[in-house]
Amino acid sequence: MGAHSPKEPTVWRQPDGKPVSCLEKIKVLNQNIQEIETLCADALEDGVLMGCDAAQIKQALHELIDGLTPPRTKG
Q1: Closest CA to 61 of 45, 75, 49, 72
Q2: Distance between CA 57 and CA 48 in Å, rounded?
Q3: Where on the phi/psi map is residue 74: left (φ > 0), alpha (ψ -120 to 50), or beta?
Q4: 19-49 pLDDT, tens per residue?
Q5: Angle (nearest 5°) at CA 29 between 28 and 34
């Protein structure tokens, strides 16, 4: 895909709004997002190359994300 413009680093937050401070956790979260971005870009590219509508593929990806439910946490 094309070149990406530089992004501001994400400040990962806890449910109470405080920033996550553990560097290892931040590293894992950032790596996960980067992997998801790559997979989504590949899926979009594959679909377009196979003749599918890019907007429909993006909508399907949005629906996938919107349908995710967070795991239950101990509390």
Answers
A1: 45
A2: 8
A3: beta
A4: 999 999 999 999 999 999 999 999 999 999 9
A5: 95
